[in-house]
Please model this.
Amino acid sequence: MSTRRRKSVLSSTADAGITRYLQLYSILSQALADGEYKSSRALPSEPELVERYRVSRTTVRRALQLLEQEGRIVRRRGSGTYAKTNRVHTALAFDAESLYGNGAVAGRDSGTQILERAPMDVPTSLRIAYPELGDTAFAIQRARSEDGETFQLATTYVPDSAAREYGLRRGGTTGLEKLVKDVRNVDQVTTAVAADAIAAKQLKVAIGSPLLRVRAALTDSKGELLAVDESLLRPDRAYLHENLRRERAGRARPRWQLQATH
Model:
């Protein structure tokens, strides 16, 4: 009598948009980044991973193959699979200043490299959300690294009207610094997205790997859109921390107030 195979604990491709082997790869990658597996300690065996996550042997092997190609693990025949290094990544905290401050956008921060600074086509999703950007906008694309490892890929899109006002097409960082100083409000949304080919190459992750996306609209005192910034962050290297406090004003119902973002 045959037994029905137990359902995988990972999401289906249709549900998640990311294949199961990439989901498993991300889980193991995070465990390695957190130092869960030291170089002297073996990772779970293939049969153990099959049982734990209720996936096929092929899924497990494809996930391990990606980690091996990245130099994260070493597979020893007859012995097991081991972490290739016991270095644990330092988690990097981000707040509004580190994401959108003068140095961050202008590329003056240590470890920040300007990849491109020119008019670019605005992604469809951004055009729909922010019609003020138009079909093309002046864009500054930059990569941020620590110890030679890139952890953030960010692009700031500036509407043509703002680009002309601040003289961004003339080059230099003065115009960008003035623009950032005029920012009075940041409307920020954080989501998880799958890495495309460009992000995968810059951040050195597999295509389809989950990334932390921080998308923000930067407006001035009049509510006019100055720029839209989109940052892609490796989830094993970065986190956003918000501090909330519940305060009561007179007889009004207590409300949660954002005290700080780290």
About this structure: The radius of gyration is 22 Å. The domain at 92-243 is CATH 3.40.1410.10 (Chorismate lyase). The longest strand covers residues 136-146.
